Give the backbone structure.
Amino acid sequence: MLGTFGDIVFEVSDERVKTFDGYNRQGQARYASHEVLGRKPILEYLGAALDQVSFSMKLNAGLGVNPVEELAKLRKMLNGGQAARLVIGGKPQGEDKWVLESLSETYDYLDNKGNVIVATVNLTLKEYIDKRSSA
């Protein structure tokens, strides 16, 4: 197993291949801008913004994955606001959980009966800070 995000398991085995491509993590700083008469504004550092992670996954029935079932799990996470740990290579990505902020899906290949054989999904996760633990 390469990693997990909630009920989604990234793995490579002799029965199944479900991995991701194009992992990108982005962080930002937050600043307030204070206007000063006759001078440039003064920036005040407020703290770190929430990190974002994005990647794509190829869901291929020929590699032991049921694209329709996996897409249903992802939609459930998106629509339910479920926060989960993101673990890659046995290492948690950050100290906090993540939520699925956006999901786009493309049906790459359907058989002659309309069954999804290959789908590509693009995911964007956002760091989730539990308000009970941030005080």
